[in-house]
Amino acid sequence: MLTAPAGLMIYVATRPVDFRKGADGLALLAKETLGHDPMKGVAVVFRAKRADRVKIVVWDGSGLVLYWKRLEGSAFKWPPVVDGVMRMNAAQLSALLAGMDWTRMHAPRILQPKALA
């Protein structure tokens, strides 16, 4: 199980990429095409044409890390295919990697306490 550290910015490339690319190729693609450099402390999530594969590129402070996962007998829930990038939080990333519908994950509203009379 991959857990994202607190405060990590996570971006999803919404268009499928060539999954023959390795960590360096994906990092360069993220920087030049999406405008987000994994070497600067962000994680970039890439999808394959088949919805059952995901790759994540992130700098962990000592080197570039490539996380790769294939779901067996299922598919990841992906946003619509469009050009661009979208943000995701750590809870949504965990749900995505577990094969769950991450679009249903959201932070609960925090209500302001009422003043005591």
From TrEMBL:
<dbReference type="InterPro" id="IPR008878">
    <property type="entry name" value="Transposase_IS66_Orf2"/>
</dbReference>
<protein>
    <submittedName>
        <fullName>IS66 family insertion sequence element accessory protein TnpB</fullName>
    </submittedName>
</protein>
<dbReference type="Pfam" id="PF05717">
    <property type="entry name" value="TnpB_IS66"/>
</dbReference>
